[in-house]
What does this fold into?
Amino acid sequence: MTLSARLLDSLAPWRAAPAWHIALSGGLDSTVLLHLLASLAQREALPPLSAIHIHHGLQAAADAWPAHCRELCAALSVPLQVEHVQVAPGASLEQAARDARYAAFAARLGDGELLLSAQHRDDQAETLLFRLLRGAGVQGLSAMPASRGLGAGQLVRPLLNCSRAELLAYAREQKLHWVEDPSNADERFSRNYLRRQVLPVLLNRWPQALTSMSRSATHLSEAGQLLDELAQQDVAAAKVSGQFAWLALPSLALAALRALSEPRQRNALRYWLRPMTAMPDSEHWAGWQALRDAAGDGAPVWRLAAGELRRSDECLWWLAGDWLCTPVLPSTLVQGNQRVTLPTNGSVQINGMLPAGNWQLGYRRAGEKMLLPGRGHRDLKRLFNELRVPVFVRDRLPLLRRDNQVVAIANLAGLQGPADGSWQLQWQSPTNDQGLS
It folds into this structure.
């Protein structure tokens, strides 16, 4: 089957997409992809084609690439959009550039539109080897997916079943011109070192090494999918539902996780936390063990890259964003039917008219008590213990004082206002989003 036919076959599921955008660097791989698609569009009913070139501004040679891409696209009658991005400084320039590039791509995609990227079989094998040397697990060693969500659309890699040698042969046959990135020769970058120094040695001894490694990556991808399916079952069995649903925080029942083997616990937690934070490698899971095995009256914390895992009353809670800030609210005079935004702590709503008096909104104080009908004055700490309010919530719960006496605590049944329901104190807790409430 020709390269063109294989490309068309791999894109068959997306023939009805609103648009196809080609990630065009100007290098060999993306130039071949552009030429193949432009040629196919002359004889096939394809979605509208366009190309996107990302200019990182990281090296002087790159300044000439947008003009090259414009000339290339003009010759093929394919519209081109050039996007300039800023690369954030950091430990890994490669990763920072990749993050900036994909953020720009995502911003360009409309609903259901495709970004077509030119990674091929050699890239697949190179990625496997690179991650293997970093000690990645099954998920990390999995093959680059043929497609995944990106922004409002999809990222699709239609050349993963093709080798670089095939792309090079096509480019020479079609007399294509492409740019060479000078940084690809810089062996300080690990991937370049693997490509230029390690892979040639492997291929000299095992000519089919790239194909074999690509096949292994596919097997590992299937294994990763099975682990995810197992994790879905374990996480579903540990889901928490109850009186604190208004917290709107990810949570799991610790008892359900304890019933699993240690590897299965880690698998479930990796799956559950994957959308929220990067996870440590297998040698740095002592924080989980300490959290899980702490004494019942403890309040242990496992700090991860993007937040914290807390434990309270045999439940695990994921906290990030404003939840990691200590809320501060000087006593604030309030009145009925009022909404108040709380710094780093969401907002509070007073529903109904308050009786006459000096009403103040605030947080609990040490040793503070509340008068309950038929029960007398009750210490707030004991009330929270009785109601099993998570420890990390207690100093955040807004409360109302009348003439310096606590008369209502937000969101707690029976404590958020008078029994007749004439008014209530309701709290919308902060989100886990960074800097958002």
About this structure: The chain has a mean pLDDT of 90. The chain has three domains: 3-222, 238-319, 332-428. The radius of gyration is 29 Å. The longest strand covers residues 49-55.
